[in-house]
Write a structure and sequence with these properties.
The structure holds two protein chains of two kinds. Chain A is α+β, with helices and mostly antiparallel strands. In chain A, 50% of the residues lie in helices and 14% in strands. The longest helix of chain A has 35 residues, at 238-272. Chain B is of the alpha/beta class. Chain B has two domains: 2-201, HUPs (Rossmann fold, 3-Layer(aba) Sandwich), CATH 3.40.50; 221-248, no CATH class. Chain B has helices at 37-53, 68-76, 95-108, 128-136, 187-193, 234-244; strands at residues 2-6, 9-11, 33-35, 56-63, 81-86, 113-117, 139-148, 153-158, 161-166, 171-175, 198-201. In chain B, helix 2 (68-76) crosses helix 5 (187-193) and helix 3 (95-108) crosses helix 4. Classes of the chains: A alpha+beta, B alpha/beta. Chain A binds chain B through residues 3, 5, 11, 18-19, 21-23, 25-27, 29-30, 58-61, 64, 68, 73-75, 79, 83, and chain B through 14, 30, 68-69, 72-73, 76, 184-191, 193-194. The complex binds flavin-adenine dinucleotide. Flavin-adenine dinucleotide (FAD) is lined by residues 100, 134-137, 142-143, 167-169, 210, 215, 363, 366-367, 370, 372-373, 388 of chain A.
Chain lengths: 389, 248
Amino acid sequence: MAAFKQLDFLDLDDQYSEDELMVRDAVRAWVGERFMPVVAEHFEAGTFPMDLVQEIGELGVFGPTTPEEYGGAGLNSVCYGLICQELERGDSGLRSFVSVQGSLVMFPIQAFGSEEQKRHWLPKLASGEVIGCFGLTEPDFGSNPGGMTTAAKRDGDDWVLNGRKMWITNGTVSDLAIVWAQTEEGIRGFLVPTDLPGFSAPEQKHKFSLRASVTSELVLEDVRVPADAMLPEARGLRGPLSCLTQARYGIAWGALGAAHACIDEALSYAGDRIIFDKPLAGFQLAQKKLADMATDITLAQLYCIRLGRLKDEGRMTHFQVSMGKRNHVDMALCCSRVVRDMLGANGISLEYQVGRHMCNLESVITYEGTHDIHTLAIGEALTGVPAYR
Amino acid sequence: MKIVACIKRVPSTEATAKLSPDGRGVDTANLAYMTSFYDEIAVEQAVLTKEASGGEVTVLTIGPAEASKEVRECIAKGADAGIIMTDPEWGSRDNLSTAKVLAAKLGELDAELCFMGRVATDRDSASVGPMVATLLGWSCVTDVVALSLEDGTAQRETEQGLETISFSLPAVITCDKGLNEPRYAGLKGIMAAKKKPLEEVAFEEVPSQISTASLALPAERSEGRIVGEGPDAVPALMEALRNEAQAL
Ligand SMILES: Cc1cc2nc3c(=O)[nH]c(=O)nc-3n(C[C@H](O)[C@H](O)[C@H](O)COP(=O)(O)OP(=O)(O)OC[C@H]3O[C@@H](n4cnc5c(N)ncnc54)[C@H](O)[C@@H]3O)c2cc1C
């Protein structure tokens, strides 16, 4: 596979600091040399390359914004965005693994956990010694998680959890699950070690999307945890939703990475492929497709940089994240379909990347708030009228 | 022990080289750069040496101020400090002037061991390492693929086979592929590198004696021809090699 060349039509590299570029390039090099050679194989087998987890931890991309005292790298949010971009340029499954670990497991512990919970879990999660998952969605509650039926009941000092979660990334390979459950005082989050009696996480098979990522059910039958397993500072839906804002921020950048991979492949393929005696790149129809994609990608790059700077200044709103997630995933999905077509029959082969991205993005457009739900969020921001129900 | 790894910032090997309008250099507009491939092996060897037997690793380059990205990347991989000897005209230096400046700096730094790449991937000269050693009166082993400082031996790959050389310090070692596998800069290393010293220093210029008169891109290669497949193709291939290519 040819080395990746990133489209930078507006010379936007100038907008990043030297360390931001170093972080991006370090992750880019790792993805290119260590992940790309094995991804197609894992996608086909429906597995995640678990043998790389330790290396990913050493690279430092699990919870990279976590302060150094808790084992993180203390990076800014623009760096986190660039990391997601590079990981998803490899595969949405890789970015999902890292998003879940960082934004959905480490973030809530950092934001809502006790000092003891932070000291105990964060360094192990940052190194990859402990793998986490985030259990919010249930068979009957996806876009409306507030209706969840998983429940935690007090029994003496302990909590006893019962219920079922669905579509949980990394469930089967996790050591720790963050489980959101109804209690008498509303929705609360619990840190549940997955080796407790009554906990099981059967894998959900037969996916055609995000195949290089493990997706699982979580089954909780009288799972007993001590009082200090509850996240003390997360009360109500605001807890899980604020985690989702972090992860969605990463997806806004990640989807851009997938789009970059697609146009890069399209450009090299169109240059090499001779049709009717000349390169495909020399036909106007092909150029129109390339020009449309390059324009959309360039606008998304600008959006991401601005979003990242706002986040680092503490001014980003979840509505702005919704616009980024919604638009960039949709844009990347459109690019992947166009490029799939430009590659002809090769476009359906796993020897090329685009088919993998196209299938993956069907998950990405649904999880972390569906396209429609983000439409409603933007609508709410514009009109002041929530129209979710 | 003071260990120095010399690196050069070179155009990315992925970049398509275009000639500058005056035809004497490469067009640097929008050109992407990287640390020369073999120099990364030199940095890794310096860091491995420090990890095994202690010491301090300084990354040294002659180049533009923008080389700070490459130098910091090397620091992020385990070096302790970086020095950029700033020269805006770095692209047109000749090897001897570069070697003289580096040799003087190595002396000033009290270095005992200097690692360099076998060759820089831009100019392909493979001469600065031996020149520096000669100027300083140090040992020099080039194209090293295995090294034991304890035994004072280095192995180099030659066309005849593997050669084992005994040497004593101080020494310049030029590093070849296979000597080690350079590590990735982890994100924590990148953050830590921000806190380590990176100096930009001016230096007394040694004039170049050689300048580039002109550069030309290689002629386009004519297309290959497949004469057949499998054993059946052998006679046609022999015929082509004998008569057309006159290679036999
Ligand atoms: C591969 C994968 C990994 C996942 N990983 C996780 C994980 O780690 N943790 C986790 O908790 N969840 C995870 N999910 C679940 C994901 O977050 C949900 O699938 C998502 O929230 C949508 O829920 P749903 O599937 O129940 O769809 P539904 O909510 O049933 O939506 C169905 C359709 O209805 C539309 N819709 C919903 N509400 C409205 C409305 N008000 N107005 C108009 N249209 C509406 C939706 O846009 C969609 O088109 C994952 C999903 C996938 C596919």
